[in-house]
Amino acid sequence: MSASLLAMAYFINKCCSALLIEKVVALSFFLPSLFYLASMMTLDSFNDVPFIFSMLQYLILAMVGLFPLTIRGSHILIAFIFFPFAIVQSLFYQGYVWSLFNNMWLFFLFAGISLWLQIAQLSMLMHLYRESTVDPLTKLINRRALLRSIEHLKSEAIKFSVIMFDLDRFKRISDTFGHIFGDKVFKEAASVLSNSVRSTDIVSRYGGEEFLIVLPDKSNAQDLKLAHKISTRLRVAPIAVSKHNHCM
């Protein structure tokens, strides 16, 4: 058991990828569960089981709460842990229904607590991720997340084009109508850009009044056509200053 865990630690240290991490996490829970099953099957009766072994599946369940996994991933892991546990319970069942009920209740109690901890961790991490990668005003990704996405496209050898937009004379607009109106201009520009591209395209607020779009797998002719279309939409998009006055 120790050798298998050390081997997984060695491989994940040598080559770290998302797919490998998923496999290692699954095996990190599945192998101890198999070890639990094999150990319990060597004993003649439940009275011969050391206390730490009888609690092993609950300890493994508690460890699940350390990982910020999705609900689907959590259920898969809990299923890996549950099947060896259920087999052991059936092997040592002696007709005591309340004893079986108590063990099952305790298992699902630990499982529920682990799920709650995972969801809380995942929510916190997603909140921190959004704060570090999303522009709070326009809700577009910021420059940091944009550069990371570009590096990913380059590493995957995916061809892409880049279109940059700059809002002309924005300082004059902000000075004339105020910063609150300037924020409305940013939001409207971000909305126009987001609604003009595919779901696979990347729209970012690059900095200040500059916006940048990354277009994977598109021809130059298509890129130019899209740039002109967005430019036209930006020019004609009305933004209300007051009830009787509009700025184009």
Architecture overview:
A 3-stranded antiparallel β-sheet has the order 1-3-2, sandwiched between helices. The chain has 248 residues and is mainly α. It is 65% helix and 11% strand.
> What fraction strand?
5-15%
With helices defined by DSSP (H or I, 4 residues minimum), what is the helix count? 10
What's the Cα radius of gyration?
28 Å
- The side-by-side strand order for the widest beta sheet comes to 1-3-2
| Unreliable runs | 243-248
Q: How would you sum up the global shape?
A: elongated
Return the string of H and E elements. Answer: HHHHHHHEHHEEHEE
Provide mean pLDDT, rounded.
83
Could you give the topology of this structure?
Blueprint: H1 2-14, H2 18-41, H3 51-54, H4 56-64, H5 71-91, H6 97-133, H7 143-155, E1 160-166, H8 170-177, H9 179-194, E2 202-207, E3 210-216, H10 220-236, E4 239-242, E5 245-247
Antiparallel strand pairs: 1-3, 2-3, 4-5
